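**User:** Once you have settled down, spend some time on the protein underneath, comparing sequence with structure tokens, and judge whether sequence predicts the tokens.
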Amino acid sequence: MRLVLAATLALCAACNGPAPVGADASADGPSDAAVVKPEDVAPPPPPPSEPGLHTVTLTETRQVIPGPGLPAETMPGNSNNNLDLARLGGRVYLAWRTAPNHFASTQTQIFVVSSTDERTWRFEQRLAVASDLREPRFLVLGERLFLYVSRLGTNPLAFEPQGVSVSERRADGAWTPLEAVFEPGFLTWRTRFERGTAYAVGYLHGENEYLFNGEPIDVELLTTTDGRAWAPVDAMRRVVYRGGGSEADFTLGDDGTLFAVIRNEAGDETGWGSKVCRAPRGDLARWTCRYDARKFDSPLMFWHDGEAYLVARRNVTATGAYDLMERDMPFVSQVVRYQLNYRNQPKRCALWRYVQSEDRIAFVMDLPSRGDTCFAGVLDGATADERVLYNYSSPIDGPDVAWWQGQQGETRIYRHVLRFTRR
């Protein structure tokens, strides 16, 4: 879910600072005169890698979507992006969004397929509601498999969160029709089963992110026993963060400590970028957070052999920062400038780690990726030292275009295998 450029540009008249990058752009994107094309400029090198307990090696990358192993019932469109994975009963389940481009569309579809070898896939179901669907999220509860999807509107120039619906795979292999779950307007970012408990982390009032009204967004941590009735992990502390953050994910360490990252695009009193958070064992709703100037879009977190890892988008600039620290500008001017500047930069999907002794995020490596990229899912690998990541990207052998260009172009889904070797 991303800012639509035209909505931002409509506010530029209120900007009292320097003209934002691309301010003379049309609704379709910045004009060539307004932007230095990233593909014409050598990108800065990635930041130094800071490995922790493991040396991480990429051992395999292959394209899955579009691909020869898909069933005839699936029809990948030009844009294939938001995805999730689950393993149940010896099969891997894959759900992904396909549409003409990255933005809201009445033509959006969610396809669900499954496989025993991740090469030949069986059709499971197709979801389409004549409006936008995003963020497919699986949850395995025993032998039950749930798929949650976020419902949005039809206007590609607006961010219109409607709520979340769920479909369950029955024992006979059929899927139940979509039905509303959670409260209206709430959007799930991740659903997961961690150390014996089912969780959802999501946010309410997400429309405030692009209204520039200064109203807060609430990040909530919920739990369930049946996949449909959700309640706060702590009834006295339903909201774990209130401010400019929305997309959030977490993982639990071996001792039960919670490690989390929140994308803070709308900004708060500390600035813009992200929040790096933790909560103590036994009190998982008491998040304490630190500011980070980088914006970790589409965060995915997982625990592996003593480390909390993060997969999130990397801004390909000299500093990687989202927050440009231009504090002499009015609030709305800062928001507009930062968002437009960010859209004009190339991107990568990167693996990071949570430095537990310092509560900060350290870069580990980039995945093969460029343009519009980074919305990952993770599975255990064939061996204990492997993890399998599925991710979307503009063609990885194509030009290194700006993010906004990639969002309007073709995107594909790739499968990566990472090996974690103890140092």
